[in-house]
Each structure stands twice: as structure tokens, then as C-alpha cells.
Amino acid sequence: QVQLVESGGGLVQAGGSLRLSCAASGRTSSTYVMGWYRQAPGKPRELIAQISRSGAPNYADSVRGRFAISRDNTKNMLYLQMNGLGLEDTAVYYCNAQGQNGYWGRGTQVTVSP
To answer: Per-residue confidence at 1, pLDDT binned at 50, 70, 90?
Structure first.
């Protein structure tokens, strides 16, 4: 069992930045593929960034070049640096371990204002 707790969400103006963090505990999360998903109102949850156990990242087209995912396996932490935020980035952001059938955090709200 893995527990995931997100933090760092909030209200930011368009063009601004936020850094999300995810603290993992329980079974050794450093062996898992980790990712960030988001769900905007009225839309399905989507994978926006994923990082392998060795640190290789992958991004959805919608965030590539603006967001950066990273992990610190020594601290069991996952991060998402978000730059150049736009109104379309408003969503609840979820930390995930081991894909859609894996483990989920409760989410953190990111709201981008004009």
C-alpha cells in the first residue's frame, strides 16, 4: 500500500507559476512509475506528466515545454513545476503511482485567474 499526499495548489494569475509536491509513504514508492493527472470541471481525468523510476519524463502535448516533472527517491517525493499557467490549466491535480490501476492522492486544486 502507498499513500500519496499532494500540496502546493492554489490560486495564481495567468502566466504565473506553481510547484506541486507529492509526498509518498508506505511501500517503497521509488520503484514505481509516478505521474501527475488532472481533471478539469466536466472533463475526464487526463495524464499530463509521467516519470520513470530512473527519472525519464514524458509529457502530454498540452503541457510540454511549460511543466516539468521530477522526483527525489531519497525523500519519496514527486514534484511538478508549472510555468506559464493559463486558464485551461485550472483543474484538480492528482499524484499517481503505478498508473490508473495504482495509487492516488486526494488531489490539490489549481485555479488560474485572468
So the answer is: confident
